[in-house]
Specification:
The protein contains three helices and 18 strands. The chain is mostly beta strands. The protein has one domain. The two termini are about 30 Å apart.
């Protein structure tokens, strides 16, 4: 499942943006895949042109074959025009996606035709606006961050990684680092680590989040 966020989290709906959909190339083929369409991806604005209509109807292969004459038009699929994609390095982080964006479920069945399962899988359809948390406390699985778990000691700071959509952790810079003028890490801080842990499977069922996890507090509005 394309989820990088564990259940424990604290955030306010006032800090959630519901205006952007992920770019087409980031949409997952199914909820068993993983990529920039995951839940728990740190994103930036890719298209923020408010002169465009909020939603437009356009051709989308997700509908299937739309060439039949009785359909009337092939431009039937609604899509949010404002777009996001994974953020990295020097990008400004808008926030973190709370839902994955996927076409199909684990059986290859279109989520378009099964809205109940879509909600159960915490998924948005291609073109739908995905909720983005700009601030809060979240528990992140290993797929959400780069580097060894030792980089995420409690109190360490976080910034965007060189791998789009992920974060990286580091301790405060020392005086010697400051005197060299290397302050890039400090200027890109938007959160810190509250703690870490390890999940393991119990019994015959494999835990989907098995491995290291971290609890972070971040504020992309700062």
């Amino acid at each position: 499942m394309a989820l990088r966020i564990l259940p424990f989290r604290q955030y306010s709906d006032h800090d959630v943006v519901n205006m952007y959909s992920v770019i087409a190339s980031d949409v997952l083929d199914s909820t068993t895949g993983t990529g920039a369409g995951d839940a728990g991806v740190f994103v930036k604005v890719s298209d923020g042109n408010f002169d465009n209509d909020p939603v437009t109807y356009q051709t989308n292969a997700y509908l299937g074959d739309t060439s039949y004459p009785f359909l009337g038009t092939t431009e039937m699929y609604p899509e949010v025009n404002l777009k996001i994609t994974g953020a990295k390095d020097e990008d400004h982080c808008l926030g973190m996606t709370l839902y994955q964006t996927a076409k199909n479920d684990e059986n290859g069945e279109k989520l378009l035709y099964n809205p109940q399962k879509q909600e159960e899988l915490q998924a948005m359809l291609p073109g739908q606006a995905v909720p983005i948390a700009t601030k809060g406390i979240f528990t992140l699985a290993a797929a959400a961050f780069d580097g060894p778990i030792t980089s995420y000691a409690p109190g360490n700071k976080i910034k965007l990684s060189s791998n789009a959509g992920k974060i990286t952790g580091f301790a405060s810079v020392s005086l010697s680092t400051i005197t060299t003028g290397d302050l890039v890490d400090e200027t890109k801080i938007f959160g810190h680590v509250l703690g870490t842990g390890v999940r393991s499977s119990v019994g015959p069922t494999t835990d989907q989040f098995v491995g290291n996890y971290i609890v972070v507090s971040f504020d992309c509005n700062s």
